[in-house]
Amino acid sequence: MNSIKKAGATLLIAFVGGAVAIGSYKIFETNQTGLSIEEKQKVYFTNNPETDNTPLLGALDFTQAAANVSPAVVHVRTTYTRSASNQGQGMDAFGDMFEDFFGKRGNPQQRNNMNKPAMGKGSGVIVSDDGYIMTNNHVVEDADKIEVILTDKRVLSAKVIGRDKNTDLALIKVEGSNLPLVKLGNSDDVKVGEWVLAVGYPLTLESTVTAGIISAKSRQIGILAPQINPNNYDPNNPPTNTSIESFLQTDAVINRGNSGGALVNTRGELVGINSAIASQSGTYEGYGFAIPINLAKKVMNDFLKYGEVKRGYIGVQFSELNDDNAKELGTKEIDGLYVNSTVEGGAAAAAGIKKGDIIKKLNGEAVLSSALLQEKIGTLSPGAKVVITVLRDGNQKEFNLTLKGEEANKVVAKASPATAEIMNNLGATFAPLNNETKKKFGITTGVIVNSVTAGKIFDTYDLPKGTVITSINGKGVNNNDQVISALKQSADMVSFQGIIQDGSRFRITLPLK
């Protein structure tokens, strides 16, 4: 097992840096109090002489798109107290694997001088001319001071309007008027293979524009999922994964510092907020991920209207069907979402959906991946009405649902005190496996070990961070609830099957005491 200890891990990392854009814009007067982001943009693009009656750009007009967008992509600069930076929050919110990349704790000289505050950098996109700026939650989380550097080199103080860990989005505000902004696009219309531009402040560079294509949609990479902490685990209140990951994947070059920056189409329309990269080195290796703008619009408008995100829920737990798990679930279907359970009092249960149904469509549109379903529902609010088409007993049937709020969705696998003790003894935390790693190893199920406690079982038996666990006690596992469910079968021993990072497979049975 010594080879396991030496294994490395592919990192899914959020990036920080900043963005200072260059450009000019016309001044005009508007009154935008109480408007949504879309309404603010409508006022701007109707009243701004520079944008009035301007035709859409051509399909490959990179230069004009870059000129239109760059002035509104800004550098977000953050400051943290020493106590906050020592807690590992903010830009390190996704775990200690980010510490070496983001610089929140400062350089070695800063770390040796406890009187100096830690600094961070990120990008942001101005979405209204009166100073609303979209960025990532991890860029501004726990910051004591947030500053925005505009295109004319002014430095303005910013305040947080709202933050949402479930999507890694944040809306901040500076006091200003007549600011340049990026026009919102429609991420539903984005096509795989379409050209896009990434604009941000990567590494230590000035504002940078890169080009690439949309290489995939609805990517779920596991970076936002809650982790099980065996040292602070409450079996009566287990973590519930309410994160929404349905990223646009692009090969446009993005790096640390692009977090919160713009992903735009060649017409200069904002289609995504850059958020993460897949990398073993901490720099670009071909895969970048952006939050779809349609999801971001919902989050922003909720911040403006309610001060928080009010999200609707279907109230089901499901498994994404494929050729490997269909037999285990007792179905011949390999496309769709298999309903494992429904939340008591939730929207699905109230409408009549039950365990064993296979979700095929949402509002008439095929939904074959969990990421796509979560993205579509994530743009809706409690009270919204949707039509879910399921396959039951070989026949398709439609159900009319009224989405419920978060409180109606609180249910799920609870671990017994014995299971909580097992988690503590193992000394490991787990996160869902991203699609790239599944493809790399040719597997369809798995979780990744993202931390190991010294002296506990995983540490003793040389199962380090980065190890992939494909099954526990013979049951495939994809998320924390399934890990808990599989461990319930354990008494004195527990069996793990998995893969180390060099691709070698292993099976090991461990004592629990």
Choose one word for the global shape: globular
| Major beta sheet summary | 6 strands, antiparallel, barrel
CATH topology tier name of the largest domain: Thrombin, subunit H
> Largest sheet, order of strands side by side?
9-10-11-14-13-12
What low-confidence regions span 5 or more consecutive residues with pLDDT below 50?
Answer: 1-11, 15-30, 52-57, 84-112
The CATH first-level class of the largest domain comes to Mainly Beta
The separation of the N and C termini measures 20 Å
Q: What class would the helix/strand composition place it in?
A: alpha+beta
How many distinct folded domains?
3
Proportion of residues in β-strands: 25-35%
Give a written overview of the molecule:
With 513 residues, the chain is α+β, with helices and mostly antiparallel strands. It folds into three domains: 298 residues, Thrombin, subunit H; 89 residues, Pdz3 Domain (Roll); 98 residues, PDZ domain (Pdz3 Domain), CATH 2.30.42. It is built from 14 helices and 26 strands. Strands 9-10-11-14-13-12 form a six-stranded antiparallel barrel. The longest helix has 14 residues. The N terminus is likely disordered.
